[in-house]
Amino acid sequence: MFTKIKSTYKEYPAAFKVLILATFIDRLGNFLLFPFFALYITERFGVGMVEVGFLFTIFAAGNLFGSTIGGALADKYGRRAMTLFGLVVSGIGNISMGLANNLTVFYSLAIFLGLIGNFGGPARQAMVADLLPPEQRAEGYGILRIALNLAATIGPSLGGLLVAYSYMTLFIADAITSIITAIIVYTVIPETKPQKRDDEPEDSVMKTFIGYKEVLKDWVFVLFLLVSAVIVLVYMNMNSILSVFLRDVHGFPAQGFGLMLSMNAIMVVFFQFWITRRISKYAPMKVMAFGAIFLLIGFGMYGFVSEVYMFFIAMAIITIGEMIVFPVGQVAAASFAPEDKRGRYMAVYGFQWAIPNLFGVLVMGLVMEYIGPNWVWYLAAILSLISIIGFWLLHGVTKKRFSKEEEPIKEEFLEYSISSIE
User: What is the four-CA torsion angle of 51, 56, 61, 66, rounded to 10 degrees?
Assistant: First the structure.
């Protein structure tokens, strides 16, 4: 098995491999800090979860605007430049947050980091599509998810060791990983922004931002985003409402929920590549509809089951669904985009996560509080069904458009890609 994975991995360009390594290191720092963020804020500043929730809303809003700006600048100035800028600012900002003694200052830094620190997000997403030919992109984004989940598996454990010394070590460690990643990107990864032809005029900064108008005029892409946002609204319950529901309704301990999330991450690490390789040849909208069926079943189960082993089975089903839906969604978003607007398309694609994060937890919390806990999962199943229908209908609309994207690349490019990594 591992020999086959190693052989397959050799098919990818060296720059892509380095990008995966750099992403793993950077996200490892994020996952060192993120699980302990709420604990730090409540302990350091003596506040409750309302203030913590407000802080997370600030981050979500900042990410929304930051990715929008970063996507345009990635198309204007290059993917590498924006990735480096975001990493350096993130490293410096994290140290500053760890040193902040005042909650107002802490909030101000959160606004700044949420906005500026996410400049490089769309650039990295676009970089994957820049580096890989169309038929490898699904696997490429799948490998990216493996790196993220491997970081999510290791990071919290390391963070637990560091926090025994002090919370400040978490901020320092996150900053160090950001700077290490920046050094790797600067030293090894080339600029991947597609070059304009000699007869094409260079866009001004203002024209680059106005280019978002063309993205939003792509009504098929906007419909895809709306349907994708529905399934994100369902999925985000895994990291927000689910832990509270299991604790309050079924007396399920936090340690048990931690094991469930670890199982989720480990499944992605071991099976994401295998699954992605087998689904990448099928029409993306059909595949996403199929994956959403697993999310419907998994989340819907929590409204009906009460046995501990069934909680884990439901999580396993959800994990299969996310391994199908989200890498293919990234490939679809990249396939919609013309090369010169790929950064902006990937930035707008990020809206499907950012907008549900602004209000999703609040809405589901109100449902849980005033309608009934099980209704969160009934509603999740209904929303999943809506997304299944939406993706299936989009298949007919996008079939012709995606068929152009999937044309075989030239044999010379294949030979070059293989020889460059041998």
Answer: 130
Alpha carbon distance 373, 302 (integer Å)? 10
What average pLDDT does range 194-218 have in this prediction?
A: 60
Secondary structure of residue 408 in the 3-state scheme: coil
Q: Which residues contact 282 (CB under 8 A, 6 or more apart)?
A: none
Stretch (H or E) spanning 285: helix 284-301
- Give yes or no for residue 62 having a pLDDT over 50: yes
CA–CA distance, 102 with 44 (Å, rounded to integer): 9
Using pLDDT thresholds of 50, 70 and 90, give the confidence band for residue 209: low
Output the CATH code of domain 10-193+209-421: 1.20.1250.20
* pLDDT interval class at 244 (50, 70, 90): confident
38: pLDDT strictly greater than 70: no
Q: How far apart are CA 123 and CA 4, in angstroms?
A: 30
Evaluate if residue 206 carries a pLDDT over 50. yes
Instruction: Answer whether 2's CB lies under 8 Å from 273's CB.
Output: no
Distance CA 179, CA 119 (A): 15
Sequence ranges of the domains in the chain: 10-193+209-421
What are the helix (H) ranges across 100-218?
Answer: 103-116, 121-131, 134-163, 168-188, 205-217
Res 49: pLDDT: 54
For residues 421 and 137, give the distance between their C-alpha atoms in angstroms, rounded to a whole number. 17
- Backbone region of residue 46 per phi and psi (left: phi > 0; alpha: psi in -120 to 50; beta: other values): left
Alpha-carbon span 245 to 204, nearest angstrom: 50
- Measuring CA to CA, how many Å separate 176 from each of 30, 34, 112, 141, 187? 11, 15, 19, 25, 16
Per the model's pLDDT, the better-predicted residue between 23 and 141 turns out to be 23
DSSP letter, residue 102: S
Interatomic CA distance for residues 5 and 233, integer angstroms:
33
**Which residues are CB-neighbours of 95 under 8 A, at least 6 positions away?**
171, 172, 175
Average pLDDT over residues 220-236: 91
Q: What is the mean pLDDT of the chain?
A: 79
